[in-house]
């Protein structure tokens, strides 16, 4: 049974930087569903888009797989596609260990390999779908272009990147609005003012978010030909970026 997230419920003398450790693993499903608006809809969309774009004899990647929610959403949709395999990557050993246990609870003919490493170090090969579900925002900003360029290079023509991110608005007034209504969402889900404040302090040095404009321009600069936001709720969005069917050197 999923434990309730109460990590920041009591006053802390010192708020340490947020880490995906064993404490977070125990409450992660509750945390993310109460913190990320539309999370279940995003997972459903990842499954649908994976079914549409997964190619036979290719590899699917879930970069920053945490407990494997996106991995499961992908795997459930590709059982009838010939010889596909999934690689899940996360740099938290606690997450990988629990993910392995959860995946074993669902029978499937689609093999999944889990790797405990930084996504910056993951080779992308023969890929048709790569998912980064709220992962890039935890990669140091100066390394994000390289990570996405590596994804692009490893994608087959017609392959896709599914990118979900929290973002900030370029308009300060609109950014304040989005932050406020997101905090209202968390209050409605039972988080106290103390929890919201301490979680924000813990994560501000770990999760540095971009604007949607920055995401779009970076993807265009890398070479993705078709880019679209397919889901947005408050300051959370999911994008799809498609590698063109005909690319030089592809």
Automatic annotation (TrEMBL):
<dbReference type="GO" id="GO:1904047">
    <property type="term" value="F:S-adenosyl-L-methionine binding"/>
</dbReference>
<keyword id="KW-0949">S-adenosyl-L-methionine</keyword>
<dbReference type="GO" id="GO:0008168">
    <property type="term" value="F:methyltransferase activity"/>
</dbReference>
<comment type="subunit">
    <text>Homodimer.</text>
</comment>
<dbReference type="InterPro" id="IPR029063">
    <property type="entry name" value="SAM-dependent_MTases_sf"/>
</dbReference>
<keyword id="KW-0808">Transferase</keyword>
<dbReference type="GO" id="GO:0032259">
    <property type="term" value="P:methylation"/>
</dbReference>
<feature type="binding site">
    <location>
        <begin position="90"/>
        <end position="91"/>
    </location>
    <ligand>
        <name>S-adenosyl-L-methionine</name>
    </ligand>
</feature>
<keyword id="KW-0489">Methyltransferase</keyword>
<feature type="binding site">
    <location>
        <position position="200"/>
    </location>
    <ligand>
        <name>S-adenosyl-L-methionine</name>
    </ligand>
</feature>
<feature type="binding site">
    <location>
        <position position="133"/>
    </location>
    <ligand>
        <name>S-adenosyl-L-methionine</name>
    </ligand>
</feature>
<feature type="domain" description="Methyltransferase">
    <location>
        <begin position="62"/>
        <end position="159"/>
    </location>
</feature>
<dbReference type="GO" id="GO:0002098">
    <property type="term" value="P:tRNA wobble uridine modification"/>
</dbReference>
<feature type="binding site">
    <location>
        <begin position="64"/>
        <end position="66"/>
    </location>
    <ligand>
        <name>S-adenosyl-L-methionine</name>
    </ligand>
</feature>
<comment type="function">
    <text>Catalyzes the conversion of S-adenosyl-L-methionine (SAM) to carboxy-S-adenosyl-L-methionine (Cx-SAM).</text>
</comment>
<dbReference type="InterPro" id="IPR005271">
    <property type="entry name" value="CmoA"/>
</dbReference>
<dbReference type="GO" id="GO:0016743">
    <property type="term" value="F:carboxyl- or carbamoyltransferase activity"/>
</dbReference>
<comment type="similarity">
    <text>Belongs to the class I-like SAM-binding methyltransferase superfamily. Cx-SAM synthase family.</text>
</comment>
<feature type="binding site">
    <location>
        <position position="39"/>
    </location>
    <ligand>
        <name>S-adenosyl-L-methionine</name>
    </ligand>
</feature>
<protein>
    <recommendedName>
        <fullName>Carboxy-S-adenosyl-L-methionine synthase</fullName>
        <ecNumber>2.1.3.-</ecNumber>
    </recommendedName>
</protein>
<dbReference type="Pfam" id="PF13649">
    <property type="entry name" value="Methyltransf_25"/>
</dbReference>
<dbReference type="InterPro" id="IPR041698">
    <property type="entry name" value="Methyltransf_25"/>
</dbReference>
